[in-house]
Amino acid sequence: MSTSNITSTHPAAFLLVGIPGLEHLHIWISIPFCFAYTLALLGNCTLLFIIQTDAALHEPMYLFLAMLAVIDLVLSCTTLPKMLAIFWFRDQEISFYACLVQMFFLHSFSIMESAVLLAMAFDRYVAICKPLHYTTVLTGPLITKIGMAAVARAVTLMTPLPFLLRRFHYCRGPVIAHCYCEHMAVVRLACGDTRFNNIYGIAVAMFIVVLDLLFVILSYIFILRAVLQLASQEARYKAFGTCVSHIGAILSTYTPVVISSVMHRVARRAAPHVHILLAIFYLLFPPMVNPIIYGVKTKQIRDHVLSLFQRKDV
């Protein structure tokens, strides 16, 4: 065995297959993906522009929404350009380190998204249950600390993954049966004992989803109790109406996760492309629909968008 074979622990590059079994449909599949990507870019950039330019929107709820928009933009731009390059130009090669970077950003920002949704639940809890203390509790410094904590948690949990993957020999070839560098898709190519990677990946996912969802649900239990104690029905509708957009964002983010998790356990024998399409749906759906949800249900943003179109008409 040559010296180069002994010292080389990983391939110089991986090959991303795309959607296994549906290669002949890549061009057609790329059309809705490109449309969703364009909507995500336009919607989230518009949200950020509106929040930045309108001083009336420099409130905690909208600052958290701006964080969510940035995260959705990063998630979209981390995976979709390469995915479309695979579909359109068959540009399947991705360097080993670029693959690790993509994986790190993908999983880190998914964790950040969950943290921001939790922060938005806390925002709604304070606004409805402690309205007199809203401005004194959710101050600018606290919002900054929440944002930094979301980043720190994600980076801390995901930093070990690239280093864990670097230590493996990849004897099962360089071909990744996926559209992007997902952690477990890379681990399947590795030789040796990968149990720690498997356990760590599952533990982090369960920790984030279960813990964050638990606190979100607890927040809404307190919110619902406070809303039901309001005297008039109109006041109840108005109070709970401020939560509708956030509930929509939670459903758009966590529903694909739950569906994908159930499918992995119930339909293990399903074709690989079924699971990959679900994974892509999880990446595409929230960045595409979150701006629509907040644009339609939030009066201040809706009015600002309408005013932009009215100026163009004039």
Automatic annotation (TrEMBL):
Can you tell which superkingdom this protein's organism belongs to?
Answer: Eukaryota
| A family per Pfam | 7tm_4
Q: What is its main location?
A: membrane
Molecular function, one GO term: olfactory receptor activity
Which keywords does this chain's UniProt record carry?
A: Cell membrane, G-protein coupled receptor, Membrane, Olfaction, Receptor, Sensory transduction, Transducer, Transmembrane, Transmembrane helix
Q: Can the keyword Cell division be found in this entry's annotation?
A: no
PANTHER family referenced in this protein's UniProt entry, alphabetically: OLFACTORY RECEPTOR 52K1, OLFACTORY RECEPTOR 56B1-RELATED
- Function (record text): Odorant receptor.
Which named protein is this?
A: Olfactory receptor
